Amino acid sequence: RLAGEGDPAAVARAAWLADRLFGIGEAADSLDAVTLQPDVRRAALLAIRRLHEDAARALLDDTGTPLGEAEALLRPGVSALIAAVPVPESSILPGAAARLVGGASSLSAAIGIVRLAAAAGVAPAEAAAAWDAAGRDFGLEALRGAALAAPAPGAFGPRAKAALLEDLGALQARIARAILAGEAPRPLEGAVRLAREAAGQGELAAVSVALRALERA
Questions:
Q1: Predicted TM-score of the model (pTM)
Q2: Dist. CA 151–CA 159, nearest whole Å
Q3: Cα separation of 148 and 84, whole Å?
Q4: In terms of pLDDT, which residue wins out, 196 or 6?
Q5: Are 213 and 153 in contact (CB under 8 A)?
Q6: What is the DSSP string of 160-173?
Q7: What distance in Å separates the CA atoms of residue 58 and residue 208, rounded to the nearest whole number?
Q8: Distance of CA 83 to CAs 22, 72, 214, Å?
Q9: How far apart are alpha carbons 107 and 100 in whole angstroms?
Q10: What distance, in Å, lies between the first and last C-alpha atoms of the chain?
Q11: pLDDT tens-digit map of 122-146
Q12: Cα separation values, 52 from 43, 80, 95, 187, 213, Å
């Protein structure tokens, strides 16, 4: 689905780098080494593939840094976030796959969180907490989920969706950076209410309107 969101070379680079950082291929392959019910295997593979897509999308803008350098800069933080995902003793998935599947919703923002941690000079876990607070308190996570699920028809639809997701991430990063600096902005009730209402519409236009309201708040 990323093919329509950017230059083919940039998409290929981002997908390769995301695979390397998260161990996507290894986690998917590990599912073949154990006996699983078909529906369990399908659900795990789907979660891993969605995580791969989310991580690759976040890397689309990083085309100027050599691949080796980009991997070296991001790997420690990404690895720390993956390692922090708890694996229940009852999990029937192999360790690597269990962490990616169990932490897919939080790890989908790992690239943004690691960049935030580097910019603010804090540990990834602290950056993750600020990121989550920004997304929750300002309705940004709900908007992001709505944007991901919304249809994007037309020749420019996928690129419009990608640009909107990038803007949502940028606002969340700014708010999270302010939280880390001890200058947490106060969410305006009207803008946050609009964001939550827009998230339920299932339309990119609604998400865009709500985002603009949050940016002006």
A1: 0.90
A2: 12
A3: 25
A4: 196
A5: no
A6: HHHHHHHHHHHHHH
A7: 19
A8: 11, 17, 33
A9: 7
A10: 33
A11: 999 999 999 999 999 999 999 999 9
A12: 14, 17, 17, 31, 30
